[in-house]
Amino acid sequence: MLNQASIDALRHAAVPPQSHFIGGKRAPALDGGLLDVVSPIDGRVLTQIADGSAADVDAAVATARVAFEDGRWSRMAPAERKKVLMRLGDLIEAHALELAVLGVRDNGTEINMAFKAEALSAAGTFRYYGEAIDKVYGQIAPTADSILGLVHHAPVGVVGAIVPWNFPLMIGSWKVAPALAAGNSVVLKPGETASLTLLRIAELASEAGVPDGVFNVVTGRGATVGEALALHMDVDILAFTGSGATGRRLLEYSARSNLKRCYLELGGKSPNVVFADAPDLGQAAKVSAAGIFRNSGQVCVAGSRLLVQEDVAEAFVAELTRHAEAFTVGDPLDLGSQIGAVHSEAQLAANLDFVKTAEAEGAERRSGGERILAETGGTYMQPTIMAGVKETDTLFQKEVFGPILAVTPFKDEDEAVRLANGTAFGLAAGVWTANLSRAHRMIGRIRSGVVHVNTYGGPDLTVPLGGLKQSGNGHDKSLHALEKYTDLKTAWIQL
User: Fold this and answer.
1) Cα separation of 43 and 87, whole Å?
2) pTM for this prediction
3) What pLDDT does residue 487 have?
4) Which of 22, 23, 68, 117 has its CA 20 to 30 A from that of 448?
5) Whole-number Cα distances in Å, 461 to 1, 161, 254
6) Gap between the Cα atoms of 422 and 99, Å rounded
7) How far apart are CA 53 and CA 140, in angstroms?
8) Residue 116: what pLDDT?
9) Is 394 exposed, middle or buried (CB count within 10 Å of its CB: 0-12, 13-18, 19+)?
10) Which residues of the chain have pLDDT under 70?
11) Looking at 227, 300, 319, 399, which residue is catalytic?
12) Ramachandran angles phi, psi of 393, nearest 5°
């Protein structure tokens, strides 16, 4: 249970300059480069991280390759890898408050969410894949009696992982845990503005018994470290969560290098479709408000497009506005704050520009749309509702990654489907209806990797998360994630 005194005891703890984690120990950037870490809570420099270069990536990949090839982890029995990953999960949970507070100081997520969705989620993820890995079987093919056909699941080699700043622990764990469980070595590049918790996780992994060189973290700029990792000839797989523009570059880098497999989760512009026959419109409004405004809208699956049936549109938007205006926005380390900070000055400026563009294109601002608490030095923004957004509007089509909801009315089911599918994205969606047949029709007709029905958010590790269209490919979470980090190897044996 969180308590304010415990949080406050950690909020001002000194954070020394941070180096890479390579080969089981901290390693400064080879050229000595450092990047300032600015906290969105108050705009002050929190610490510094190593500003990595291609040479640092080379060192980390070489270390990971040696660790993979000598079998210190890749040939360890799955039951033994399981024990290590379970210990890591326990260590993360034991340090959950420390990790959550450190992460909030780094990226501005409200502490209640960070504690559960970051620290405790990461602990659960490492346990999940640790527990699973000694239960993954190969296959025996139905061959003639004179042949034994076997299909093995083999680790791929060196996995490069690039993760964003919004949920670094959660998303990082989604990639690192199954990759390690399958026997691979990992080189992880965190977002340059949210690296601190993943560096700490690497230390805890070493303490748990992950051998030196198996889990490495290189910090720095995406244009330098991310590019070097994606172009590296000795990285076998690249797993990425981030923007579509970067995802396209990573595919190009794969083609220019060794044709490494790229798994890309590229965000979305997710429709949240509310029919007039929703079982509880009041509850739908409350959950829909949380579905866009939690973590200041900085969630890849955020329900950022509200499609609401005309018959109930005005009343529904009024109720949703009431919930939005009741949220407490403020210091993310204060347990009373329900929404924390926007991640950076640049992100806040982009959000405010989206509001101006929406108004210029004819949308009506129903609530919010302004910077608040500027006197703190931090980056805070009101939950914002823009009504009357048209299908051709920028706010309808473009991912904002901020606390801004676009509201568009619809007449009937066919129009709802057309609007829901009317962007280049296909990550998540929501449908609110009491009609079971309609719910199933909408699940089938909406092109997205996740469809929530009469809720928004909450799917756990038992189900996959992945996108369609320009929201990417491949899946995080669930046992399906293991498929990304293994090769199928056939043994054809003449008896």
Assistant:
1) 36
2) 0.97
3) 97
4) 117
5) 22, 19, 29
6) 39
7) 46
8) 97
9) middle
10) none
11) 300
12) -75, 150
- The pLDDT of residue 264 is 97
Strands 25-27 and 20-22: antiparallel
Tokens, residue 297? 């809208």
Distance, in Å, from the CA atom of 402 to the CA atom of 385, rounded to the nearest integer, reads: 11
Tell me, what's the pLDDT at 123?
98
71: buried, middle or exposed (CB in 10 Å: 19+, 13-18, 0-12)?
Answer: exposed
Kindly report the three-state secondary structure assignment for every residue of the chain. Answer: CCCHHHHHHHHCCCCCCECEEECCEEECCCCCCEEEEECCCCCCEEEEEECCCHHHHHHHHHHHHHHHHCCCCCCCCHHHHHHHHHHHHHHHHHCHHHHHHHHHHHHCCCHHHHHHHHHHHHHHHHHHHHHHHCCCCCEECCCCCCEEEEEEEEECCEEEEECCCCCHHHHHHHHHHHHHHCCCEEEEECCCCCCHHHHHHHHHHHHHCCCCCCEEECCCCHHHHHHHHHHCCCCCEEEEECCHHHHHHHHHHHHHCCCCEEEEECCCCCEEEECCCCCCHHHHHHHHHHHHHHHHHCCCCCCCEEEEEHHHHHHHHHHHHHHHHHCCECCCCCCCCCECCCCCHHHHHHHHHHHHHHHHCCCEEEECCCEECHHHCCCEECCEEEECCCCCCHHHHCCCCCCEEEEEEECCHHHHHHHHCCCCCCCEEEEECCCHHHHHHHHHHCCCCEEEECCCCCCCCCCCECCCHHHECCCECCHHHHHHHEEEEEEEEEC
Tell me phi and psi for residue 314, to 5 degrees.
-65, -45
- Residue 1 is predicted with a pLDDT of 79
pLDDT in tens, 226-269: 999 999 999 999 999 999 999 999 999 999 999 999 999 998 99
The residue among 220, 200, 133, 188 whose CA lies nearest residue 481 is 133
Contact 449, 477 (CB under 8 A): no
Which residue in the list 265, 325, 364, 415 is annotated as catalytic?
265
Annotation marks residue 265 as catalytic: yes
Tokens 């990595």 locate to 52
Q: First vs last Cα of the chain: how many Å apart?
A: 61
- All domains of the chain in start order, with CATH: 4-266+472-494 (3.40.605.10), 271-460 (3.40.309.10)
What gap in Å lies between CA 35 and CA 52, rounded to an integer? 9
